[in-house]
Amino acid sequence: xxxxxxxxxxxxxxxxxxxxxxxxxxxxxxxxxxxxxxxxxxxxxxxxxxxxxxxxxxxxxxxxxxxxxxxxxxxxxxxxxxxxxxxxxxxxxxxxxxxxxxxxxxxxxxxxxxxxxxxxxxxxxxxxxxxxxxxxxxxxxxxxxxxxxxxxxxxxxxxxxxxxxxxxxxxxxxxxxxxxxxxxxxxxxxxxxxxxxxxxxxxxxxxxxxxxxxxxxxxxxxxxxxxxxxxxxxxxxxxxxxxxxxxxxxxxxxxxxxxxxxxxxxxxxxxxxxxxxxxxxxxxxxxxxxxxxxxxxxxxxxxxxxxxxxxxxxxxxxxxxxxxxxxxxxxxxxxxxxxxxxxxxxxxxxxxxxxxxxxxxxxxxxxxxxxxxxxxx
Length: 377
Ligand SMILES: [Zn+2]
Known about the structure:
By secondary structure, the protein is α/β, with parallel strands linked by helices.
Protein backbone atom coordinates (compact mmCIF):
# COMPACT_ATOMS: atom_id res chain seq x y z
CA UNK A 1 0.00 0.00 0.00
CA UNK A 2 1.19 3.47 -0.68
CA UNK A 3 -1.19 5.97 0.82
CA UNK A 4 -0.70 9.66 0.60
CA UNK A 5 -1.75 10.24 4.13
CA UNK A 6 -3.93 13.00 5.30
CA UNK A 7 -5.21 12.65 8.84
CA UNK A 8 -8.59 11.68 7.42
CA UNK A 9 -7.22 9.03 5.08
CA UNK A 10 -5.15 7.59 7.86
CA UNK A 11 -8.18 7.54 10.10
CA UNK A 12 -10.13 5.64 7.45
CA UNK A 13 -7.28 3.18 7.17
CA UNK A 14 -7.17 2.70 10.91
CA UNK A 15 -10.90 2.21 10.99
CA UNK A 16 -10.52 -0.58 8.47
CA UNK A 17 -7.80 -2.18 10.57
CA UNK A 18 -9.87 -1.88 13.71
CA UNK A 19 -12.51 -4.13 12.19
CA UNK A 20 -9.84 -6.80 12.10
CA UNK A 21 -9.21 -6.31 15.80
CA UNK A 22 -5.72 -4.93 15.35
CA UNK A 23 -4.87 -4.78 19.03
CA UNK A 24 -1.53 -3.00 18.96
CA UNK A 25 -0.96 -0.24 16.53
CA UNK A 26 2.59 1.00 16.40
CA UNK A 27 4.45 3.48 14.31
CA UNK A 28 5.84 0.71 12.13
CA UNK A 29 2.32 -0.01 10.92
CA UNK A 30 1.54 3.66 10.58
CA UNK A 31 4.65 4.07 8.49
CA UNK A 32 3.64 1.20 6.25
CA UNK A 33 0.23 2.68 5.71
CA UNK A 34 1.73 6.04 4.89
CA UNK A 35 4.25 4.71 2.45
CA UNK A 36 7.38 5.52 4.36
CA UNK A 37 7.36 7.85 7.34
CA UNK A 38 4.88 10.09 8.99
CA UNK A 39 7.03 13.15 9.62
CA UNK A 40 6.94 13.96 5.94
CA UNK A 41 3.15 13.82 5.89
CA UNK A 42 2.29 17.27 7.00
CA UNK A 43 -0.47 17.98 4.58
CA UNK A 44 -2.81 19.12 7.33
CA UNK A 45 -3.22 22.88 7.11
CA UNK A 46 -3.26 23.01 10.87
CA UNK A 47 0.15 21.44 11.34
CA UNK A 48 3.15 23.60 12.07
CA UNK A 49 6.65 22.57 13.04
CA UNK A 50 9.28 24.13 15.21
CA UNK A 51 13.00 24.37 14.51
CA UNK A 52 13.44 20.76 15.63
CA UNK A 53 10.87 19.54 13.13
CA UNK A 54 8.46 18.65 15.90
CA UNK A 55 4.77 19.34 15.60
CA UNK A 56 3.30 22.25 17.51
CA UNK A 57 -0.24 23.51 17.97
CA UNK A 58 -0.89 26.28 15.47
CA UNK A 59 -3.27 29.06 16.43
CA UNK A 60 -5.78 27.64 13.97
CA UNK A 61 -5.43 24.21 15.49
CA UNK A 62 -5.86 25.72 18.92
CA UNK A 63 -9.13 27.33 17.83
CA UNK A 64 -10.28 24.01 16.44
CA UNK A 65 -9.54 22.27 19.73
CA UNK A 66 -11.19 25.06 21.72
CA UNK A 67 -14.22 24.75 19.43
CA UNK A 68 -14.45 21.10 20.29
CA UNK A 69 -14.44 22.03 23.94
CA UNK A 70 -17.30 24.45 23.40
CA UNK A 71 -19.43 21.60 22.10
CA UNK A 72 -18.38 19.25 24.89
CA UNK A 73 -18.78 21.83 27.63
CA UNK A 74 -22.58 21.65 27.76
CA UNK A 75 -22.45 17.89 28.24
CA UNK A 76 -19.86 18.09 31.00
CA UNK A 77 -21.62 20.55 33.30
CA UNK A 78 -24.31 18.75 35.31
CA UNK A 79 -27.88 20.00 35.00
CA UNK A 80 -28.90 22.36 37.78
CA UNK A 81 -31.51 25.03 38.45
CA UNK A 82 -30.31 28.63 38.58
CA UNK A 83 -29.42 29.86 42.05
CA UNK A 84 -32.30 31.46 43.96
CA UNK A 85 -32.14 35.08 45.08
CA UNK A 86 -32.26 33.79 48.63
CA UNK A 87 -29.18 31.60 48.05
CA UNK A 88 -27.31 34.49 46.47
CA UNK A 89 -28.13 36.83 49.35
CA UNK A 90 -26.85 34.21 51.82
CA UNK A 91 -23.64 33.79 49.86
CA UNK A 92 -23.18 37.55 49.59
CA UNK A 93 -23.50 37.82 53.38
CA UNK A 94 -21.11 34.89 53.83
CA UNK A 95 -18.42 36.57 51.71
CA UNK A 96 -19.13 40.06 53.02
CA UNK A 97 -18.74 39.06 56.67
CA UNK A 98 -15.39 37.32 56.15
CA UNK A 99 -12.13 39.20 56.51
CA UNK A 100 -9.88 36.27 55.59
CA UNK A 101 -11.82 34.02 53.23
CA UNK A 102 -10.11 30.91 51.87
CA UNK A 103 -11.65 29.26 48.80
CA UNK A 104 -11.19 25.55 48.10
CA UNK A 105 -11.90 24.48 44.52
CA UNK A 106 -12.31 21.15 42.76
CA UNK A 107 -12.81 19.65 39.32
CA UNK A 108 -16.41 20.90 39.12
CA UNK A 109 -15.27 24.42 38.27
CA UNK A 110 -13.21 23.29 35.28
CA UNK A 111 -16.12 21.50 33.60
CA UNK A 112 -17.01 24.99 32.42
CA UNK A 113 -13.66 24.98 30.62
CA UNK A 114 -14.27 21.62 28.94
CA UNK A 115 -12.34 19.44 31.39
CA UNK A 116 -14.51 16.72 32.93
CA UNK A 117 -14.78 16.17 36.65
CA UNK A 118 -14.67 12.76 38.28
CA UNK A 119 -17.91 12.12 40.12
CA UNK A 120 -20.79 14.05 38.53
CA UNK A 121 -23.28 12.21 36.25
CA UNK A 122 -21.23 13.03 33.14
CA UNK A 123 -17.89 12.90 34.93
CA UNK A 124 -14.93 10.70 34.08
CA UNK A 125 -16.04 7.89 36.36
CA UNK A 126 -19.37 7.62 34.56
CA UNK A 127 -17.61 6.17 31.50
CA UNK A 128 -15.61 3.65 33.51
CA UNK A 129 -12.43 5.74 33.78
CA UNK A 130 -9.94 4.45 36.32
CA UNK A 131 -7.20 6.98 36.98
CA UNK A 132 -3.68 5.63 37.17
CA UNK A 133 -2.48 5.04 40.71
CA UNK A 134 0.91 5.98 42.09
CA UNK A 135 1.73 2.30 42.60
CA UNK A 136 0.81 1.39 39.01
CA UNK A 137 3.00 4.18 37.67
CA UNK A 138 5.98 2.95 39.70
CA UNK A 139 5.47 -0.74 38.93
CA UNK A 140 6.59 -1.14 35.30
CA UNK A 141 8.26 0.81 32.53
CA UNK A 142 5.51 -0.40 30.19
CA UNK A 143 2.87 1.31 32.32
CA UNK A 144 4.87 4.53 32.26
CA UNK A 145 5.32 4.34 28.48
CA UNK A 146 1.58 3.93 28.06
CA UNK A 147 0.88 6.79 30.47
CA UNK A 148 3.28 9.22 28.81
CA UNK A 149 2.24 8.34 25.26
CA UNK A 150 -1.35 9.21 26.17
CA UNK A 151 -0.39 12.19 28.26
CA UNK A 152 1.76 13.61 25.47
CA UNK A 153 -1.25 13.57 23.18
CA UNK A 154 -3.65 14.88 25.81
CA UNK A 155 -1.46 17.74 26.97
CA UNK A 156 -2.15 19.93 24.00
CA UNK A 157 -5.91 19.60 24.48
CA UNK A 158 -5.45 20.32 28.17
CA UNK A 159 -3.47 23.42 27.25
CA UNK A 160 -6.22 24.60 24.93
CA UNK A 161 -8.73 24.87 27.81
CA UNK A 162 -9.40 28.44 28.90
CA UNK A 163 -10.32 29.69 32.39
CA UNK A 164 -14.07 29.59 32.98
CA UNK A 165 -16.43 32.02 34.72
CA UNK A 166 -15.65 30.58 38.17
CA UNK A 167 -11.90 31.00 37.72
CA UNK A 168 -12.40 34.55 36.51
CA UNK A 169 -14.84 35.52 39.27
CA UNK A 170 -12.52 34.16 41.97
CA UNK A 171 -9.59 36.07 40.48
CA UNK A 172 -11.72 39.25 40.63
CA UNK A 173 -12.63 38.61 44.26
CA UNK A 174 -8.98 38.01 45.06
CA UNK A 175 -7.90 41.23 43.36
CA UNK A 176 -10.54 43.14 45.37
CA UNK A 177 -9.14 41.66 48.58
CA UNK A 178 -12.29 39.60 49.22
CA UNK A 179 -10.55 36.24 48.84
CA UNK A 180 -7.36 35.78 50.82
CA UNK A 181 -6.12 32.77 48.87
CA UNK A 182 -7.28 29.75 46.87
CA UNK A 183 -6.49 26.10 47.54
CA UNK A 184 -7.26 23.99 44.48
CA UNK A 185 -7.45 20.27 43.90
CA UNK A 186 -7.14 20.92 40.16
CA UNK A 187 -3.94 20.33 38.23
CA UNK A 188 -4.90 22.40 35.17
CA UNK A 189 -3.42 25.75 36.30
CA UNK A 190 -6.52 27.62 35.18
CA UNK A 191 -6.63 29.73 38.38
CA UNK A 192 -3.20 31.11 37.52
CA UNK A 193 -4.23 31.83 33.96
CA UNK A 194 -7.35 33.64 35.22
CA UNK A 195 -5.13 35.94 37.27
CA UNK A 196 -5.11 34.40 40.75
CA UNK A 197 -1.61 35.01 41.94
CA UNK A 198 -0.83 32.44 44.54
CA UNK A 199 -3.18 29.46 44.44
CA UNK A 200 -1.95 26.40 46.34
CA UNK A 201 -2.11 23.45 43.98
CA UNK A 202 -2.80 20.78 46.56
CA UNK A 203 -2.50 17.91 44.10
CA UNK A 204 0.28 19.43 42.01
CA UNK A 205 0.16 20.45 38.39
CA UNK A 206 0.52 18.89 34.97
CA UNK A 207 2.68 21.89 34.06
CA UNK A 208 5.73 20.45 35.79
CA UNK A 209 7.53 17.10 35.60
CA UNK A 210 9.17 15.65 38.69
CA UNK A 211 12.18 13.30 38.96
CA UNK A 212 11.58 10.45 41.36
CA UNK A 213 15.37 10.04 41.68
CA UNK A 214 16.69 13.51 42.53
CA UNK A 215 13.58 15.66 42.84
CA UNK A 216 14.49 17.89 39.89
CA UNK A 217 11.51 19.80 38.51
CA UNK A 218 11.25 20.40 34.77
CA UNK A 219 8.88 22.64 32.86
CA UNK A 220 6.31 20.53 31.03
CA UNK A 221 6.82 22.30 27.71
CA UNK A 222 10.48 21.29 27.78
CA UNK A 223 9.50 17.71 28.60
CA UNK A 224 6.97 17.66 25.74
CA UNK A 225 9.74 18.78 23.42
CA UNK A 226 12.01 15.96 24.58
CA UNK A 227 9.21 13.43 24.03
CA UNK A 228 8.71 14.83 20.56
CA UNK A 229 12.43 14.66 19.77
CA UNK A 230 12.57 11.02 20.87
CA UNK A 231 9.33 10.01 19.17
CA UNK A 232 8.94 12.16 16.07
CA UNK A 233 6.70 9.64 14.33
CA UNK A 234 4.34 9.47 17.29
CA UNK A 235 4.30 13.26 17.56
CA UNK A 236 3.44 13.58 13.90
CA UNK A 237 0.80 10.85 14.12
CA UNK A 238 -0.85 12.65 17.01
CA UNK A 239 -0.77 15.87 15.05
CA UNK A 240 -2.24 14.21 11.99
CA UNK A 241 -4.98 12.29 13.70
CA UNK A 242 -6.43 14.39 16.44
CA UNK A 243 -8.66 16.47 14.20
CA UNK A 244 -11.53 14.00 14.35
CA UNK A 245 -14.64 14.08 16.46
CA UNK A 246 -14.00 13.28 20.13
CA UNK A 247 -14.04 9.54 20.59
CA UNK A 248 -13.56 8.74 16.92
CA UNK A 249 -10.66 6.89 15.37
CA UNK A 250 -9.52 10.17 13.91
CA UNK A 251 -8.89 11.40 17.44
CA UNK A 252 -7.23 8.14 18.60
CA UNK A 253 -10.45 7.55 20.54
CA UNK A 254 -9.15 10.21 22.93
CA UNK A 255 -11.12 11.29 25.96
CA UNK A 256 -9.82 14.07 28.14
CA UNK A 257 -9.55 13.38 31.85
CA UNK A 258 -9.45 15.71 34.88
CA UNK A 259 -5.88 14.81 35.82
CA UNK A 260 -4.48 15.66 32.40
CA UNK A 261 -4.42 12.02 31.40
CA UNK A 262 -6.41 10.91 28.42
CA UNK A 263 -7.60 7.60 27.09
CA UNK A 264 -6.35 6.34 23.78
CA UNK A 265 -7.82 3.22 22.27
CA UNK A 266 -5.31 0.41 22.81
CA UNK A 267 -5.04 -0.28 19.08
CA UNK A 268 -3.35 3.08 18.66
CA UNK A 269 -0.80 2.55 21.35
CA UNK A 270 2.81 2.49 20.29
CA UNK A 271 4.95 -0.24 21.83
CA UNK A 272 8.31 1.35 21.11
CA UNK A 273 7.42 4.75 22.57
CA UNK A 274 10.47 6.22 24.34
CA UNK A 275 10.15 8.13 27.62
CA UNK A 276 12.83 10.72 28.45
CA UNK A 277 14.78 10.19 31.67
CA UNK A 278 15.93 12.90 34.08
CA UNK A 279 18.73 14.97 32.53
CA UNK A 280 20.43 15.32 35.92
CA UNK A 281 20.44 11.75 37.23
CA UNK A 282 18.77 9.49 34.65
CA UNK A 283 15.89 8.86 37.05
CA UNK A 284 12.24 8.15 36.33
CA UNK A 285 10.11 11.20 35.50
CA UNK A 286 6.49 11.60 36.47
CA UNK A 287 4.11 14.54 36.22
CA UNK A 288 4.23 16.69 39.35
CA UNK A 289 0.73 15.48 40.17
CA UNK A 290 -0.38 13.56 43.26
CA UNK A 291 -1.80 10.37 41.79
CA UNK A 292 -4.39 8.34 43.61
CA UNK A 293 -2.62 6.19 46.19
CA UNK A 294 0.01 8.83 46.91
CA UNK A 295 0.09 11.54 49.57
CA UNK A 296 0.20 15.31 49.22
CA UNK A 297 3.82 16.39 49.98
CA UNK A 298 4.09 17.20 53.68
CA UNK A 299 5.19 20.83 53.29
CA UNK A 300 2.35 21.56 50.89
CA UNK A 301 -0.26 19.88 53.10
CA UNK A 302 1.00 21.90 56.06
CA UNK A 303 0.92 25.14 54.09
CA UNK A 304 -2.73 24.50 53.15
CA UNK A 305 -3.64 23.63 56.74
CA UNK A 306 -1.91 26.77 58.09
CA UNK A 307 -3.83 28.84 55.57
CA UNK A 308 -7.15 27.36 56.71
CA UNK A 309 -6.18 27.91 60.35
CA UNK A 310 -5.47 31.59 59.63
CA UNK A 311 -8.78 32.10 57.83
CA UNK A 312 -12.15 33.03 59.31
CA UNK A 313 -14.32 31.26 56.70
CA UNK A 314 -13.90 28.63 53.98
CA UNK A 315 -15.90 28.47 50.75
CA UNK A 316 -15.70 25.18 48.83
CA UNK A 317 -16.60 25.43 45.13
CA UNK A 318 -17.04 22.60 42.63
CA UNK A 319 -15.83 19.78 44.83
CA UNK A 320 -17.55 16.78 46.38
CA UNK A 321 -14.87 17.07 49.11
CA UNK A 322 -14.53 13.29 48.97
CA UNK A 323 -10.77 12.89 49.13
CA UNK A 324 -9.22 13.13 52.58
CA UNK A 325 -6.53 15.66 51.62
CA UNK A 326 -9.23 18.29 51.19
CA UNK A 327 -11.91 17.03 53.60
CA UNK A 328 -9.44 17.35 56.47
CA UNK A 329 -9.12 21.07 55.68
CA UNK A 330 -12.89 21.51 55.86
CA UNK A 331 -13.07 19.53 59.08
CA UNK A 332 -10.30 21.66 60.61
CA UNK A 333 -12.18 24.85 59.71
CA UNK A 334 -15.32 23.53 61.38
CA UNK A 335 -13.41 22.43 64.47
CA UNK A 336 -11.96 25.90 64.94
CA UNK A 337 -15.42 27.45 64.60
CA UNK A 338 -15.12 28.93 61.09
CA UNK A 339 -18.21 28.82 58.89
CA UNK A 340 -18.00 26.67 55.75
CA UNK A 341 -20.01 27.43 52.62
CA UNK A 342 -20.39 25.05 49.67
CA UNK A 343 -21.30 25.71 46.04
CA UNK A 344 -21.57 22.37 44.27
CA UNK A 345 -23.99 20.42 42.14
CA UNK A 346 -24.63 17.17 43.97
CA UNK A 347 -23.91 16.00 47.50
CA UNK A 348 -20.59 16.57 49.22
CA UNK A 349 -18.90 14.88 52.14
CA UNK A 350 -19.32 18.05 54.21
CA UNK A 351 -22.99 18.88 53.56
CA UNK A 352 -23.89 18.15 57.18
CA UNK A 353 -21.13 20.45 58.42
CA UNK A 354 -21.76 23.44 56.17
CA UNK A 355 -23.62 26.57 57.19
CA UNK A 356 -24.44 27.33 53.55
CA UNK A 357 -25.00 24.99 50.57
CA UNK A 358 -25.94 26.12 47.08
CA UNK A 359 -26.66 23.51 44.38
CA UNK A 360 -26.19 25.48 41.17
CA UNK A 361 -23.56 26.09 38.53
CA UNK A 362 -20.66 27.81 40.21
CA UNK A 363 -19.93 30.05 37.24
CA UNK A 364 -23.44 31.42 37.34
CA UNK A 365 -23.45 31.78 41.13
CA UNK A 366 -20.15 33.63 41.33
CA UNK A 367 -20.77 35.78 38.26
CA UNK A 368 -24.03 37.00 39.82
CA UNK A 369 -22.30 37.51 43.16
CA UNK A 370 -20.04 40.02 41.42
CA UNK A 371 -23.08 42.17 40.61
CA UNK A 372 -24.15 42.52 44.23
CA UNK A 373 -23.58 45.37 46.70
CA UNK A 374 -19.99 46.03 47.68
CA UNK A 375 -18.77 43.10 45.55
CA UNK A 376 -20.03 44.65 42.30
CA UNK A 377 -17.39 45.37 39.69
ZN1 LIG B 1 16.86 13.20 38.57
